[in-house]
What we know:
Shape: globular
Radius of gyration: 22 Å
Order of helices and strands: HHHHHHHEHHHHEEHHH
Largest sheet: 3 strands, antiparallel
Low-confidence stretches: 343-358
Amino acid sequence: MAHRLSQGADHPGAADAFAEARTTLHHASVYARAAARDADHDVAGFPTALPVEPVQAAATDATSAVITRLAEDSERLSRAAYGALHDRADQRLSGSDLQQISRWNAMSRLLAGRTLTHVAAEMPDGSARDRFTGAAAVLREPSKAWRDAAAAWVHIADTVDPREHPRLPPPGYAQVRQGKAVRMPSPDPHPAAVISRTSAVRLGQLLFGAQWTPQQPPGAARPAADIVADAGGAGALAASAYRLCATGWQMAAAAPWVIRRAEAGLVTNSVDHQPPNLDQGQRFYPVHPRQVEALTNAYSAVMGAEQKSAGALLAAARSAGTPVPRAMLDAAAHRAIAQEQKWVTATPAQAPQRVLPRAHVPTDLVLGRRPGLRQ
């Protein structure tokens, strides 16, 4: 009801107040469910996570709205991670989705670090500047960890969603003539993959301008004073980057379950894991358990890096005089997630995707193109 009222309010102050009330009510419902899970079965029937609907970035977006929209993206990604962890979403994350999320998260951490470095260069000497510089340096660790997680998928493809697959030679004339050359299916990407890309685009817009896209070279950064003004202060900028890392921790915690559910449909062309007596001409074969272990270990490394970065960013925000009460909620959620890891059951085989309405998605997500920005 609060959400509907916020949509119909004419006064912008009333709309913001209703939106804040909705967020507070949502958080309260989560705590109420946890406290009365065994007492009220009717309440337990309601979902704790709202549907995930991506809102893409556009060149017409105002840079002053980037921080607010980044917070909304983080909320959506948290819900997507919850759905992936508990297997409650209408559309499951695939191996291609996870690979794309890893690439875009690596880029967003890199952009966040560059933004903090750029802002810190204009800050007066003191503890706040040192903490901003230190947080920017620490952000390189989750960027590298996400990039390594994406690299672990290089020789692996998900047959349910092969948008991301090892590079293949073009089919020969005999294959085409015999009708054996077919196009790879291209399902719609998961909303979490779209949102991860959107978060990276928003950070690039804040740093380089509203016209920036991942296909463009970085170029010159905007004046640091303009970035701080659009963010609502240096502390708010650090707090927004903290939300990225806190949400990234949740997605990395859900990734091993996504991999286990999709394991039956994963194939590889790795030379190091070829099975004996392989048929001549067979390009792919079932993924090896060691490859699955390497994937899960890669996302375990992401969790540690994101947690370290979140702590550094919290310290930076507080040094700038910006409290982050959300951190208490995130800490409680992370403790609950860590405890639930012991009893969450993974589905051994991936069920068919449900038929969902098709939405417009960026071309680079559909075709599995790599982000252009490099570290």
